[in-house]
């Protein structure tokens, strides 16, 4: 059994634990600990970024953890479909690359080619772990002044190299990657259909959220909606739509349908129905009353949302700070504040 890191050992001794996740452009580290031991945990957490050990045993352990998660996901249809989608994007774009890695790509191949993975980790840390592109959120029972004093004292030694936020030129879905039909056989018992569309980076429009307007209408379930029509035809029983910015410079819109057997045989007609509805929205143009409907729904969602567990809360807010102005980091992902007709 590998020894615990100082941070994990301290958290374990005081009723806490830590975790992390990596998205398309950010890695998010977070922890929680008993309320009386936050200062000690923060001190150890800061050293993780100031002077990481990157010793061989820890590197191997994390590599094996990545491999274990990869093996778990091999038979998960959502992961399989996500990787399949990436495989059909532009090979020149970073988004096309494999998502998680395993022992073959992170250990065996590098060893055969004489590549020192630990050295690459240190180089990556030296290049990108700069204070100016990092965000920190701390939640504790202490006063704001006390928390601020701890943070300034413990985290000020993180280097600020004033590097630009990495960006990704172009969109992974170019003209050559559109208008394609991909058929897959799932591992589980599912009959589903996804339509994928390229979107620009819309994060600069978070106060008006044009994608929310689109998602609201396409995903509506009332009489006259796409889903109501497909249900009457006996083709689909569920429709969801989500639009998101994947990373700096590009995003996607995904319309997902849970089909019935008859729907699978009529997937082309379902596609035609959805595209016809989108063309209708283009002809009609943005409607202010629909914007107000979206605004009211999201306002209620924000006001009456359930209280988050503390660790989930700080993790989410830290991510939001990369996307929204400081005063909007709690509400920027939810509320719609501006009507923009064009």
From TrEMBL:
Carries keyword Metal-binding? Answer: yes
Q: Give the keywords, sorted.
A: Hydrolase, Metal-binding, Metalloprotease, Protease, Zinc
- InterPro entries tied to this protein: Metalloenz_LuxS/M16, Pept_M16_N, Peptidase_M16, Peptidase_M16_C
Matches recorded under Pfam families: Peptidase_M16, Peptidase_M16_C
Q: Which GO terms describe its cellular component?
A: cytosol; mitochondrion
Q: Which residues form the Peptidase M16 N-terminal domain?
A: 9-86
Source species, domain of life? Eukaryota
What is the protein's name according to its record? Insulin-degrading enzyme
What organism is listed for this UniProt entry? Rhizophlyctis rosea
What is the taxonomic lineage of the source species? Answer: Eukaryota, Fungi, Fungi incertae sedis, Chytridiomycota, Chytridiomycota incertae sedis
